[in-house]
Design a protein that fits this description.
By secondary structure, the chain is an all-alpha fold. It has one domain. The protein contains five helices and no strands. It is globular. The N and C termini lie close together (10 Å).
Length: 124
C-alpha cells in the first residue's frame, strides 16, 4: 500500500514538474550547465520525459511498461543532477546566497532517494 501511495505521489510531482518545464522553462534554463548543448530543447525534452514517465508509472495494465518508466525516471533524475549541482554553485556564488544551504543541502541528499524511489515504486 505504501508503495502505491508513493508511486502516485512521485507521479504527481513529476507531472507537475513536467508541465512547469513546458510552460515556464526560464528557471530551468538558468540552472542548466553551460556545457549542455541546445539547452532550450533539453529543457523541453526533460518536461516531456517527466510527463511520459508519469504516464508509464501510473498505468495499471502493463507491469513491464511501469518498470521501464521507473528505470527511465530514475535515470532521468540521475541525468539532471548536474543541473541541481550547478544551481547550488550558482546560488552559493550570489551575494545573497540564493535559496541557501537550507534548500540545497537537503536537495543534494534527496536526489539519490528520488532516484531509488522512482525505481522502487515501479515494482509490484
Amino acid at each position: 500500500m505504501i508503495r502505491i501511495a508513493l508511486r502516485w505521489l512521485l507521479a504527481a510531482v513529476y507531472l507537475l514538474a513536467g508541465v512547469i518545464h513546458l510552460v515556464n522553462p526560464a528557471p530551468f534554463l538558468t540552472i542548466t550547465p553551460s556545457w549542455v548543448p541546445a539547452p532550450e530543447a533539453v529543457v523541453l525534452l526533460t518536461g516531456v520525459a517527466e510527463i511520459l514517465g508519469t504516464i508509464g508509472l501510473v498505468q495499471p495494465w502493463a507491469l513491464p511498461l511501469r518498470r521501464a518508466a521507473g528505470w527511465g525516471l530514475a535515470l532521468y533524475a540521475l541525468c539532471v543532477w548536474p543541473a541541481n549541482i550547478n544551481h547550488f554553485a550558482l546560488d552559493m556564488a550570489r551575494a545573497d546566497g540564493g535559496l541557501g544551504l537550507g534548500y540545497h543541502v537537503p536537495r543534494m541528499f534527496a536526489q539519490p532517494v528520488i532516484i531509488w524511489l522512482a525505481w522502487w515504486v515501479s515494482r509490484d
